[in-house]
Amino acid sequence: MGERCSGGADEADWVRKLVAETAELTGKFNLSDYVWFCKRDLRERFDSMMERIIEEHDIFAAGTESSAITTEWAMAELINHPEILNRARKEIDSVVGKSRLVQESDIPDLPYLQAIVKETMMLHPAAPLIMRESSRDCEIQGYKIPARTRLFVNVWAIGRDPNLDQPN
Predict the structure, then answer these.
(1) What is the pLDDT of residue 3?
(2) Which of 4, 19, 97, 108 has CA atoms 20 to 30 A from the CA of 43?
(3) What are φ and ψ of residue 84, in 5° steps?
(4) Average pLDDT for 157-165
(5) What letters, b where the CB count within 10 A reaches 16 and e where it falls short, cover 62-79?
(6) How many CB atoms lie within 10 A of CB 6?
(7) How many CB atoms lie within 10 A of CB 120?
(8) In sequence order, what are the beta bridge partners of 150?
(9) How far is it, in rounded angstroms, from Cα 137 to Cα 150?
(10) Name one Pfam family in it (predicted).
(11) Same domain, 148 and 99
């Protein structure tokens, strides 16, 4: 967010710091996400800022930080596995060539690149622990789960479970 989208340099810096603080806390366990009386004012400040931005500028920004982090993880994995990087390069060169950039219309013809993206998202999920609410009574591995129960899903562990590594 630059000065042209805010009231000035001070406000732009304040917004950048608030977004950075929020992004940092997103990746950490935060007791206030799960216990109502532990909430701090960060959420209120962030909500207030977003409401003002949406009202004043008719924009909404979400997911950009997680997309950037996922891209960084993909690049790190490719650097650490040069044989996979070379195979991806060969696939891109054979489908796209070397004279232009990959376009969205090329993606169906790049299955190896698609697999790299899926593997990155599995190994490095943007939200390693997510919360859901059961919509109805159910039983999972002998445990009775009543409707409207808050459930914590460890996406990180699911992505590393060797028992779930089989293709469908």
Answers:
(1) 44
(2) 4
(3) -70, -40
(4) 84
(5) eeebeeeebeebbeebbe
(6) 20
(7) 19
(8) 133
(9) 12
(10) p450
(11) no
